[in-house]
Write a structure and sequence with these properties.
Blueprint: H1 13-23, H2 28-35, H3 39-47, H4 54-61, H5 68-77, H6 95-107, E1 113-116, E2 122-125, H7 130-133, H8 147-152, H9 164-182, H10 185-195, E3 218-222, E4 225-234, H11 242-245, E5 248-254, H12 257-267
Antiparallel strand pairs: 1-2, 1-5, 3-4, 4-5
């Protein structure tokens, strides 16, 4: 998705609403029914013949399933102040959030867990994450670390993943879905970069997991053997802050006893 088609690049709130509606593959009638507004009024808003109220913008944002960041952008385009704050994670206001995240990370030891933001940048992690990063080139772990780049780059984790094609397909499928839902240009650029890595391929149909499995595991070559992980993703259930809404915690669990034993030994437990 390019900047020209991104809804946030629209000249007006009405144009942005129309682009979001088209991105969600909804007709004006479908959106008007879901938002409980008249089709005529929605048409007037999209064409600029009627300026939507603040309440109308938020009402339309719900059935469009817009992220909090995009709701703020839509409000700004309509001439209103943002409805949702975006607080720095280090701010005192988010102390309870930071504490909750640290408890989750610490409680997950000796298994790896990481906190990532909307752009897949590493925000925090527990000590056990090193089992996934110890063979990654130092330059990929310097500065603002992108976990997808670390995972799929030829100098990153990729050469050590036994089921690389399967795991890469899983990650790219998640990223493509996120691009579709958010319309984010930076994520689209990241997806383009990752698909350009050697062996990544560009056929998305080949990335859909087969029907025989239960979940897609991460199989990591390690010290002459193989570690096998299952992963889960957790988010805050009722966020009203953009920063909190865009945080997620990815936790890795051992899929077999050998992996569990190796991780317990590394932790000295």
């Amino acid at each position: 998705m390019t900047a020209a088609t991104h809804p946030a690049g629209a000249a007006s709130a009405g144009e942005a609403l129309r682009r979001w509606r088209e991105l969600r593959r909804l007709s004006q009638l479908e959106l008007s029914i879901r938002a409980e507004v008249s089709t005529r009024h929605l048409s007037f808003v999209e064409t600029g013949r009627s300026r939507p109220s603040r309440e109308m913008v938020l009402r339309l944002a719900d059935p469009l399933d817009l992220p909090l960041r995009e709701r703020n952008r839509l409000l700004l385009a309509a001439g209103y102040a943002p409805a949702y704050p975006e607080t720095a994670l280090a701010a005192p206001r988010l102390a309870a959030v930071r504490a909750a995240v640290r408890r989750v990370l610490a409680g997950h030891e000796p298994y790896p867990a990481a906190v990532i933001d909307r752009g897949w940048h590493l925000v925090d992690a527990n000590d056990s994450l090193t089992v996934l990063t110890e063979r990654v080139a130092p330059d990929l772990l310097a500065g603002r670390v992108n976990v997808l780049r670390v995972s799929l780059h030829p100098d990153g984790l990729a050469p050590h993943i036994a089921n690389l094609a399967e795991w890469r397909g899983h990650l790219l499928h998640r990223l493509a879905r996120q691009v579709e839902l958010t319309g984010d240009e930076e994520l689209a650029a990241l997806e383009e970069e990752l698909r350009g890595y050697p062996g990544a391929g560009r056929d998305r149909s080949a990335e859909v997991p087969g029907p025989d499995g239960i979940v897609v595991p991460l199989r990591l070559r390690h010290d002459g053997g193989e570690l096998c992980f299952l992963s889960t993703v957790a988010t805050f259930g009722t966020p009203l802050d953009v920063t909190v809404a865009e945080l997620s915690i990815e936790s890795f669990y051992p899929a077999d006893e050998r992996t569990a034993a190796v991780l317990r030994k590394r932790a000295g437990s």
